[in-house]
Amino acid sequence: MARLTVYSDTDPTVVELASADHGLVAAHLALAGVLFERWPVPQAIPDVADAQAVLDAYDGPVAALMEARGFQSADVVRMPRGFTDAAARRAAFLAEHTHEEDEARFFVQGSGAFYLHTDGKVYRIVCGAGDMLSIPARMKHWFDMGPEPDFTAIRFFTRPDGWVATFTGDVIADRFPKYEPVTGPVR
């Protein structure tokens, strides 16, 4: 289940909105030009399943999104718990950047947090299994997979060379709370 927190971009202690209500999250992100959807999650996909098996499990929604948004390809990225280079991989995405194409991700398993910087605000959207997020081209953002990444996501591309980032040089990401997934029972 997704959770949205909206901050002032000048002060990360000022929380303007915090919600896990899907309708409110989707509506608030839509106002910022961001597509957010919940897709049904079928049975759990085994960790040993290859990328094609993951894509096949979501073939209907994947094909519909590709058709509607003009994506030319999709692939699967996995960051299993205990990945040996996790700290370096996390750090690679923590700097604010943009893309010349929409960045769309569907979380099959696990979670991560996207931070969107637009209109004087930072929108932190924690995505989990079943969440599909499409960030418009040229929107400033960064991604935090947490200190012990554990997720599988389908990525969508319009460019043949896939994910290409242009870093802004702004250190804004350093000022905002990092993503720390909640594990174990919630009380």
CATH architecture, by name, is Sandwich
SSE-based structural type: alpha+beta
What portion of residues belong to β-strands? 35-45%
Largest sheet: 9 strands, antiparallel
Overall shape: globular
C-alpha Rg (nearest Å)? 16 Å
Q: How many distinct domains?
A: 1
CATH class: Mainly Beta
For the termini, the CA-CA separation is 16 Å
CATH superfamily assignment? Jelly Rolls
- The number of helices is 4
Low-confidence segments, given as residue ranges, are none
In summary, what is this structure?
By secondary structure, the chain is an alpha+beta fold.
Report on this structure:
This protein is α+β, with helices and mostly antiparallel strands and about 190 residues long. It has one domain: Jelly Rolls (Sandwich), CATH 2.60.120.10. The protein is built from four helices and eleven strands; from the N terminus they run E-E-H-E-H-H-E-H-E-E-E-E-E-E-E. It starts with a strand and ends in a 20-residue tail after the last strand. The mean pLDDT is about 90.
Feature tags:
187 residues, alpha+beta, Jelly Rolls, 9-stranded antiparallel β-sheet, two-stranded antiparallel ribbon, 11 strands, 19% helix
Mind sketching the topology for me?
Elements: E1 3-8, E2 11-19, H1 22-31, E3 35-38, H2 51-57, H3 59-69, E4 73-79, H4 86-93, E5 97-98, E6 103-118, E7 121-128, E8 131-135, E9 140-144, E10 151-157, E11 166-167
Antiparallel strand pairs: 1-2, 1-7, 3-8, 4-10, 5-11, 6-7, 6-8, 6-9, 6-10
